Amino acid sequence: MTQPPRFMPVVLWIPSFEGMTRRLLNSLDRQADKQPSNGILPVWVKITALMQNFAVLMLNCPDQKGIVAVVTEFISRNGGNILSLEQHVDPQANEFFMRVQWDLTDFVIPKEKISDYFGTLIGARLHMRWQLYFANERLRMALFVSKPAHCLYDILGRWHAGEWKIDIPFIVSNHLDHQEVAQRFGIPFHHFSMNAENRQDQEQKQIALLQQHHIDFVVLARYMMIIGRPFVEAFSGRIINIHHAFLPAFIGAKPYHRAYERGVKLVGATAHYVTEALDEGPIIEQDVVRVSHRDSVEELTRRGGDVEKLVLSRAIRRHIERKTLVFQNRVMVFE
Amino acid sequence: MTQPPRFMPVVLWIPSFEGMTRRLLNSLDRQADKQPSNGILPVWVKITALMQNFAVLMLNCPDQKGIVAVVTEFISRNGGNILSLEQHVDPQANEFFMRVQWDLTDFVIPKEKISDYFGTLIGARLHMRWQLYFANERLRMALFVSKPAHCLYDILGRWHAGEWKIDIPFIVSNHLDHQEVAQRFGIPFHHFSMNAENRQDQEQKQIALLQQHHIDFVVLARYMMIIGRPFVEAFSGRIINIHHAFLPAFIGAKPYHRAYERGVKLVGATAHYVTEALDEGPIIEQDVVRVSHRDSVEELTRRGGDVEKLVLSRAIRRHIERKTLVFQNRVMVFE
Amino acid sequence: MTQPPRFMPVVLWIPSFEGMTRRLLNSLDRQADKQPSNGILPVWVKITALMQNFAVLMLNCPDQKGIVAVVTEFISRNGGNILSLEQHVDPQANEFFMRVQWDLTDFVIPKEKISDYFGTLIGARLHMRWQLYFANERLRMALFVSKPAHCLYDILGRWHAGEWKIDIPFIVSNHLDHQEVAQRFGIPFHHFSMNAENRQDQEQKQIALLQQHHIDFVVLARYMMIIGRPFVEAFSGRIINIHHAFLPAFIGAKPYHRAYERGVKLVGATAHYVTEALDEGPIIEQDVVRVSHRDSVEELTRRGGDVEKLVLSRAIRRHIERKTLVFQNRVMVFE
Amino acid sequence: MTQPPRFMPVVLWIPSFEGMTRRLLNSLDRQADKQPSNGILPVWVKITALMQNFAVLMLNCPDQKGIVAVVTEFISRNGGNILSLEQHVDPQANEFFMRVQWDLTDFVIPKEKISDYFGTLIGARLHMRWQLYFANERLRMALFVSKPAHCLYDILGRWHAGEWKIDIPFIVSNHLDHQEVAQRFGIPFHHFSMNAENRQDQEQKQIALLQQHHIDFVVLARYMMIIGRPFVEAFSGRIINIHHAFLPAFIGAKPYHRAYERGVKLVGATAHYVTEALDEGPIIEQDVVRVSHRDSVEELTRRGGDVEKLVLSRAIRRHIERKTLVFQNRVMVFE
Fold first, then answer.
1. Closest by alpha carbon to C220, among C234, C205, C232, C204?
2. Strands B171-173 and B139-145
3. Which chains neighbour C (Cβ–Cβ under 8 Å, 3 or more pairs)?
4. Is this structure's pTM higher than 0.90?
5. Over the stretch C1-20, which tens digit does the pLDDT of each residue have?
6. B67 touches B130 (CB < 8 A)
């Protein structure tokens, strides 16, 4: 009897990037149970291969008969195995939306040509707008923050614990308060002092910095400056802000003060993509927490802060997982 | 050995009006366990006595030292047993608030003179505004409704099941749709057709009807007419409305349509006292429910409807229990 | 110019049975806006036609490549228009699940032959278990209740307001308390007094009654009797119960008493399909509400009651909409 | 005209330790608005004085007439100003509970003698058990953690941002994984490798370490070792654990795996004081989050993790604020 190859046990860092991944890990777990003497190498190889072989296609087009069948047949006929599929129709706009994810292992079309083939065979004919992603892409996120630090700490904690598959090349702030925190986490810190005179210039420098570092998306983690038009346009649909109120209630400044004065019984937070109209961008996620007449403005701020960091982190996760699709100022958030 | 008096077992309808009541019932339960052969009469007598002997005092005044001690001493020195006490200070307004409830069984001041004594000895001196209630008062509620029926059904179900200690002398509507429902529950139904010409006259008749039946408070259970100034003034602080949105978001008409267009991820409802400014009255209770891009306006309306009826019923309960105190457009809701 | 046909305006009762229906209604609404002078008849005809032309297919089978494509192609190639589709893979069981809904208007396979064709062409080959429903089927629900009435009132209110597309041929109870309520709503009431001796006989009579009236599913709306094995088997997967606790916490009797003693900070409710093992059946829906040390057992019961009725009604809705699929004691609840 | 004293503006770190503090800060804010030219020193002095002059008294005793009046009179007559008061009666145990907080500025009894006087004059006579705290006490918290890091990050973030008024003299772990995190935050890290043989010895060393550093309370932030009896007794009522389930559901190991298998629709977390009976200690705080059949065990773990860290942090806050009182395995959590 030949001995199976033996290796040191290896702890694998497996990003929970995809529902897909979980599916694979689960099957691996079962396999491991059955073949405990089999060493760890084959598992490792298989995961590596699979991790680099998922595709995500998000599309929308005018609704008509047979779209699901046409797209799934395209994938299936070319050797792709559909891992998850979600579709939606907006009846008022008569628009069809779909997110489909498939395993590329046996897919006969090379990755770099999928978009071309899909466009020629299906996309153009059905007047589709589509985006294609691959699972092994690691997004680069820039973090903007002013003085309140709770969202910053939550994001850094999750990032440091490996909860998200992203890089954070730097932190930007209009204050120096959190320079030390950035240093503790080993992340470069860029300070841009902002005032009425230098704002446009400083923003131009920020845009240049983001582009130079190939930043994929920007998170405003309680960054208290309004983003100018050129910045918004340069990163359209890729800037996530957290507003400390349940929008559209309390648009603008000092929402907790106004919530206190209005005597509301819940305070909330809203994560949204930034557009030119302040606090009007498409909403990704919202949540609330109960308050009472006993709670001062300071207490509303503290309770709201817990909601803000949760809501922002959920929105970031959805964005990283390529599960958000914006249409007419509304965000489809796929499961 | 003398035989204890024996009576037929009696099922008592005990309103859950007060935390106090629960306390008594619990002690009675324990007593009943110990003396099962003792008949039911002593219990009945004791409950009756106690039920008619609670007082609730709600007050507010400029904050200063020693208010709690002065009030509790007044109650205690005169033989009252404090059953619950809650106080609150609004630091911005520098105003003190208090709700105290005590057992009148051994209280030496007669019920009808308590307010007079309290005012002379304490209230006037400390510039208090106060309200005194007694536990055996049964409130009379008028129910206004238009077409949506979910709040109406919820209220009638709770009332019919004895959940609230109130009378509903009649239902008012500007439509005839729910006349049959009123009949099924044996409640008189008054129809007031309303249009631009007759509105003021009709409201005068409504006010007269309410006053003639000694109505204590009015519930607008999705009543889609704006209440005029004379009506609001006649029942100031005694009209509860349910707005089908999380105020101050979506003030005014068609909130679910606007929530859909804004792409919010939660819809809510707000119960508030009616003031002249539409949807601006002091908020008693709010809650929300999660929705997604998959939900049409119709589905938002349905999910929101479940929240509306819950929120309105919670607000009614708080009002009946004398746990709401309005100050500067904010509602203190005592526990 | 010929005048379009004119009819009296007709109020249509349109069940909100399907996301599909909403989609159609929305398009109809828009059409109506454009042609207000056109009378109501064409709309009516169109709705009737469409309402009878939806099919829902729910299936599960061992997971493998290409299932989605095969099923959607079957529908699409035969003239069906897919209205919604949701799929799921249980990686631990390696099982594939799918719910797909399509418009039958131009579908070339007759309704009565769809199941046969699907089985021959796809189902048998892929080892599927499947269920096929049509949108115009109106389910018949039997309502069982004991003494607590809040769920009963909530269900009758929703049914009476037309929220659900069901018939309630009768109410069954082991007590006489709610006979009058049944009469108020015009529903026959069957009383079965139950004790240790007659229980098996009475249950046989209940089963006969249910079968005689062609009951599709049974709702135990706080029915405090344990259902025997023959009953469960006769209506397997078609009996919904509401348990007044957040299962699996507080299985069995007096959950609110035990929740009080344990000092929990939330109480909840669980709607589940009934199986032979008490309180162990597959869970359809759960929710909770916050409580505190101030709340007595009575107050926990009251707050929990609000959650019970909401949770049960949500579960009933999901069942009526054919959105629940049981597999290995877990319920898939499709969106 | 004499010039008011001028100082450099000073940013004050004001812990939100008490409802009291908020009240004072609010009045200071208003004062600052009125006297902007007045410098910052008087404010500083006043705050310092006040911060050191609050007392919190928590007590319980058999219920009887007049307790509130006796206690409040004791405070008031001796020059204390009551800042907040909450009382509660457990009717089943016939026990009275109270938390009262007062300003010591003009209190005539010296701090170190308050407990003595209160005991002699009131406590002993009414058979009270009581605890007296002063607002300027800064608690010392020991942090125990194993491998999952999300609670650790959340606690360190809040501590570093100054949200809590505590010291964290060291972190203890049975693993080395988080040594680097401790270093980043500048906190000493003590590693105790634990196995069946050395466990009792290691725990003795842990107890010695805690006592040597005058630790006030211990937080088990996902510390996966069972605490032995001597440890529990040495810090009775002062060890807070987070259990990753909604207790009493899923007591013991692997709760998320079991939640997945049971098919629950919500997962939760429970913060409780540690007693000898595993997962049976008195509950401080609980919360839940919605899950579905689509969520794998890994996803339940991730979603649950967000709830765990929130619930644990809320419990810690309540403990620090001296708002928790344990009686018969239930925790009163005052507002």
1. C232
2. parallel
3. A, B, D
4. no
5. 344 333 323 323 333 333 33
6. no
